[in-house]
Amino acid sequence: MVWIYANGRWFEEMINNRGKAPVADLKWTSDGKQICIAYEDGAIILGSVDGKRIWGIELPYHLKCTAWSPDSKILLLVSQNGEVNVHDEKSNFLKRLATPAIDDVPGTKVSCIDWYDGAEGWVDPAAPTLAVGFENGRVQLMRSESDDQPVLVDTGMELMEVKWNTSGTVLACSGRTWVAIPASGTAPESRRPNNQIQFYSPFGLHLRTLFLPTPSTTPFYI
User: Fold this and answer.
1) Residue 88: strand pairing partners
2) Consecutive H or E run containing 9
3) What are the pLDDT digits (tens) for 28-86?
4) According to the 3-state scheme, what is the secondary structure of 21-68?
5) Are 156 and 137 in contact (CB under 8 A)?
6) What angle do CA 48, 146, 175 make, to 5 degrees?
7) 37 with 23: CB under 8 angstroms?
8) Cα–Cα distance between 193 and 211 in angstroms, integer?
9) Pairing of strands 138-142, 130-134
10) What residues are paired with 63 via a beta bridge?
């Protein structure tokens, strides 16, 4: 749902009344003028800030998440089977995003994606701004959707999410590793999660790790 403020009141626009599938993700363009609403069943709606529907498409696959390029010209759509498809702002399919980070482990799924919007400028003209994370803990950092020499990182975690800070200088990667607990008495051998957030520079340099002191088996999202 998009809310519009007019004449001193808030009005509801672009209400989700499809009743077919829940929303998988929604992302505003960097200028805040357009929003992409992605439904799990493959439906995509592009709307304007004033609540108008610009276009809509039905894709033949289920969706997981989306990301806009900083110039709002490219839209990345991540399917639930782990592929990243590249579209233009008019919904036209352009290509499938290359994923050299998992060339040696085909079938590994994309788990998360984030594209720094450039709102606070660029730390370095050559610095990657697009982060693509995979379930096996690997991350590829790209300068554009066509970058054929991305920076490759292996976090060593079961990766849940990646997020740039507001200036594009630090990438946070949240996930977990597992610690084995030996059998004791009548208690069988088990394991517990080690939830953590790792921080990297745009060029893949590990900066620090934040360990989260919790016994929860639920991973943290950022």
Assistant:
1) 74
2) strand 9-13
3) 999 999 999 999 999 999 999 887 889 999 999 999 999 999 999 999 999 999 899 99
4) CCEEEEEECCCCCEEEEEECCCEEEEEECCCCEEEEEECCCCEEEEEE
5) yes
6) 80
7) yes
8) 11
9) antiparallel
10) 79
